[in-house]
């Protein structure tokens, strides 16, 4: 069974709503049961996720607020914790990314992309960037992100 690890820092109601939409897409019965074996979706808060979680996963969805122009300290802590254990062991694994900010998320996006470039993970979907309160199109894009990353494990 393939495992999708969703690592997120969701301190606000808006971010909590985002991760809920991602999980809805990743656990959609039409997606997870479409392959030879279902996809197991594991959700972890960034401060609780471990290197073992990352090593046991076959793909990742990362979620972060943009704090002062950069990714959250919690997600950075996750990367600090898993970087060396995962450096050679997770090369080529697929990932997706969602971000939330009040006015800009580009610094946070670039920060995450630099780290995953070092890990040699491969983006399988465009990042979903939400500015302000999520609207219907944002929610749909988040469901699609979860579904696309989960479906990638079925290929």
Query: What characteristic shape results from the CA principal axes?
Result: globular
User: How many helices does DSSP assign?
Assistant: 6
Total domains, how many?
1
User: By CATH's scheme, which homologous superfamily applies?
Assistant: Flavodoxin domain
Major sheet size, sense and barrel closure: 7 strands, mixed
The level 1 CATH classification is: Alpha Beta
Uncertain runs are none
Order of helices and strands: EHHEHEEHEHEEH
Radius of gyration: 14 Å
Distance between the termini: 13 Å
**Mean pLDDT across all amino acids:** 95
CATH architectural type:
3-Layer(aba) Sandwich
Portion of residues in helices?
40-55%
Structural category: alpha/beta
Protein architecture, described:
The chain has 155 residues and is α/β, with parallel strands linked by helices. It has one domain: Rossmann fold, CATH 3.40.50. 45% of the residues lie in helices and 25% in strands. It has helices at 13-26, 29-32, 51-56, 73-86, 106-119, 136-152, and strands at residues 2-8, 39-45, 59-67, 70-71, 94-101, 122-123, 128-131. Strands 1, 2, 3, 4, 5, 6 and 7 form a seven-stranded mixed β-sheet that branches. A hairpin with a 2-residue loop joins strand 3 and strand 4 (70-71). Helix 1 (13-26) crosses helix 6 (136-152). The longest helix is centred in the C-terminal third of the chain and has 17 residues, at 136-152. The two termini are 13 Å apart.
